[in-house]
Predict the structure of T6SS Phospholipase effector Tle1-like catalytic domain-containing protein.
Amino acid sequence: MSSEAPTRPDPTTVQSGTSGSVISFPQVIPAGEALNLPGRSLVLCFDGTGDQYDHDNSNIVRFVQLLKKDDKKRQMIYYQTGIGTGVGPQPSGRFTSKISQTLDTMVASGLGDHVRGGYEFLMQNYSEGDRISIFGFSRGAYTARALAGMLHKVGLLPAYNHEQVPFAYKMFKRDDEEGWKMSNGFKRAFCVDVRIDFVGVFDTVNSVGMQ
């Protein structure tokens, strides 16, 4: 019996645009330990409308496959399936759940659930000095940009403050003068200011308002 550990078939190419050309990548993108950087890399990836792991994977899934996931002290990965795949609370009953997913696909009715999901991942895992990178495709790109905006406007709540997240998101959506004043006060009182190291988005598709 062989004692060698099994290896996973990591993809080495990613399709570029509609031309059919491909871009070559290394088998695995390392966590950056060779750079001797402080803190960890927290990488959040938001897939496109209706996209998830299946027989026709998006470039977001292919990108996630390339990332190191075996050392949480150096790097943590968060992947979220696309709008319209049922992320967040769903109505009971097969028929109503299907309607909910259809509406989510059409008008991104569950955008808030997607943004808050990424926010809570950071809330539970971020430590001072960690590097945050956010990636997104299609409506996932819009989700990524909304999350970056929320972190800028209201900051990041400490871990386990889940009850405050809906209120923080509500203030993030307010774009009037009073909303900005309240956001600044909330940020100073409850949150920490975090720096986003990188935002990588492509083919951004807007949602019908902020839900």
